[in-house]
Design a protein that fits this description.
The chain is an alpha/beta fold. The chain has 4 domains: about 5-65 and about 300-420, inorganic pyrophosphatase (n-terminal core), CATH 3.90.1640; about 70-120 and about 250-295, CBS-domain, CATH 3.10.580; about 135-245, Udp-n-acetylmuramoylalanyl-d-glutamate--2,6- Diaminopimelate Ligase, Chain: A, domain 1; about 430-540, Diaminopimelate Epimerase, Chain A, domain 1, CATH 3.10.310. About 35% of the residues lie in helices and about 20% in strands. The strands form 5 sheets. Strands 3-2-1-15-16-17 form a 6-stranded parallel sheet.
């Protein structure tokens, strides 16, 4: 696997999460580090608007920290056609690392596997087995393997698969023994005539300089193929049974793995079988390589940098199977553990993108105008246009600097961004709930809070009844102790809260002094991190 670092934000990502990943990956690449911006959820409407406006590509979607076969290096596949001889296969297999050949068709799709043990078992087998193979072997295979030449090739080759080696006249037995057989012999004119007249299928001549015209005419008359070779009889005896095609001996019941299979699943299946190596295939069944237990025991885990979160419930699935290299965040310290020390940067600030922008400055690097523009938008988004209680003077100063680099005007871009996306119209209930959705574990209680910006409270009133029904359906599956949705006013004056769960009474208790109307508008409450989560945490501690 290429030593690449995946930079990710949290699940159900907001603009700050996505943009910080894009900008930090760009910075890492500028510093010579192989990094890629990734996302573990769909873009919300606001983020989509921002990226499209400034023509910035969205991060790559990844689902899990688990490695798949395509993430790790494996051996090159050594492939042969089904017409390859056992001799050719033997010569090639002794030069391969994994001692296996993959038999493929013209489109390189897997047909079978030939291992070194498959070949040795054939060569050491009893004569009856080799006879069956030789019966199905094309005569040209015999010529190639014996490094011979045709003196005469019968139009119709037929053989029973028997191979006889005649060292002298005394070796000649009953003529019927040689009918349809393959006969190896030396320069003995009388014996050659006897073999041909016995209706032999193929005559292999060893150490013969000249073959008489009478012998050739007799071969044509009886339909006997004649092959001449410079090899000696001992060499021929050792190699002639390597002439069959590998198609005849290949294993057709194959254990193969798709390149999208997870490493853990592959290892489990592999541990229950005995093979030395296994083919790796793509979607079309084409052989990509060979994998063995060694590769699975020595692969490098995927590397991650986590941005805008540091809690396991908000991060990528199966994070424990990856390696966390770094965390940059502006939220409370969560529950993610690492096996070794890492760089952890956590600041009391309004946006992760503000921290990323500071790191650019610390490295003496000015972001490209389009990167500066999306960083600016993310800071505006996460600070509710600098109205959130999480906003700091640093956020404002950094945003102003970024606006100068990008050539944009802060009030104008904020108005354009919020006007384009601060509506519930045209969105499904799922899109609304998961627009910016985070899970928390507070005093052992599972809390989930979604948030979305709105311009008109009336839009909430229109969907509220259906939305609550939808939340109940979601909670039947997830079993949150408290599930809340914050419809936050784009002007930063407060939020309409909708909530369910057996601990929903806690919300009434915590915000009873701030409720303004029947739509549960909570005055000045716009931040989960700074206002809602701390208030709920304190209440839960007093339970």
């Amino acid at each position: 696997m290429k030593d690449v670092i995946h930079i990710i934000g949290h699940k159900n990502p907001d603009t700050d999460s996505i943009v910080s990943s894009i900008a930090y990956a760009e910075l890492k690449r500028t510093l010579g580090i192989n990094a890629i911006a990734c996302r573990i959820g769909d873009l919300n409407t606001e983020t989509d608007f921002v990226l499209k406006k400034f023509k910035v590509a969205e991060p790559v979607y990844i689902q899990t920290a688990k490695c798949k076969l395509y993430d790790i290096p494996f051996d090159e596949a050594v492939t042969v056609s089904k017409d390859c001889t056992i001799k050719e296969a033997w010569d090639r297999i002794n030069r391969t690392k994994n001692r296996a050949l993959y038999v493929v068709d013209k489109e390189e799709k897997l047909l079978g596997v030939v291992s070194i043990s498959d070949i040795t078992s054939i060569l050491m087998n009893e004569r009856s087995t080799n006879k069956v193979l030789m019966k199905k072997t094309p005569v040209d295979n015999i010529r190639k393997v014996l490094k011979g030449e045709f003196l005469y090739e019968a139009p119709s080759y037929r053989t029973n698969g028997n191979v006889h080696i005649l060292a002298s006249k005394k070796s000649f037995e009953d003529a019927d023994e040689y009918k349809d057989s393959i006969v190896v012999m030396s320069d003995d004119l009388e014996l050659q005539k006897k073999v041909i007249c016995s209706h032999a299928a193929c005559l292999i001549l060893v150490n013969v300089d000249i073959v008489s015209g009478n012998i050739l005419r007799l071969a044509k008359e009886y339909g006997c193929t004649i092959i001449k070779t410079v090899q000696d009889m001992l060499w021929i005896a050792r190699n002639i049974y390597k002439a069959p095609n590998v198609e005849l001996i290949m294993e057709r019941k194959i254990i193969a793995f798709h390149n999208h299979a997870y490493i853990g699943d592959v290892y489990t299946k592999m541990s229950k079988t005995r093979y030395r190596s296994y083919p790796v295939l793509n979607n079309q069944g084409k052989v990509l390589g060979a994998i063995s237990r060694y590769h699975l025991l020595n692969y490098k885990k995927k590397k991650f940098i986590l941005l805008d979160h540091n809690e396991g419930s908000q991060s990528i699935d199966d994070l424990n199977e990856g390696e966390v290299m770094e965390i940059i965040d502006h939220h409370r310290i969560g529950d993610i553990e690492t096996s070794s020390p890492i760089r952890f940067r956590n600041e009391i600030i309004g946006s992760t993108c503000t921290i990323i922008s500071k790191i650019y400055k610390e490295n003496g690097i000015v972001p490209q105008p389009e990167i500066a523009a999306i960083l600016c938008c993310a800071i505006i988004s996460d600070t509710m246009n600098f109205n959130s209680p999480t906003t700091t003077a640093v956020d404002r100063a950094i945003a102003a600097e970024l606006a100068d680099i990008a050539g944009i005007h802060l009030p104008e871009i904020a108005k354009e961004m919020f006007s384009a996306v601060a509506t519930l119209k045209g969105r499904s209930l799922s899109e609304i709930l998961y627009n910016d959705f985070k899970e928390y574990n507070i005093e052992g209680k599972r809390i989930a809070i979604g948030q979305i910006n709105i311009a008109e409270e009336e839009e909430v009133r229109e969907i509220k009844e259906d939305f609550i029904d939808y939340m109940h359906k979601i909670n039947e599956i997830n079993k949150f102790d408290l599930l809340m949705m914050c419809f936050t006013n784009v002007e930063g004056t407060g939020s309409n809260l909708v909530f369910i769960g057996h601990l929903s009474w806690m919300v009434d208790e915590v915000f009873k002094d701030d409720i303004m109307d029947d739509m549960y508008f909570v005055d000045s409450v716009i931040s989960r991190k700074k206002q809602i989560i701390p208030a709920l945490s304190k209440a839960f501690q007093n339970l």
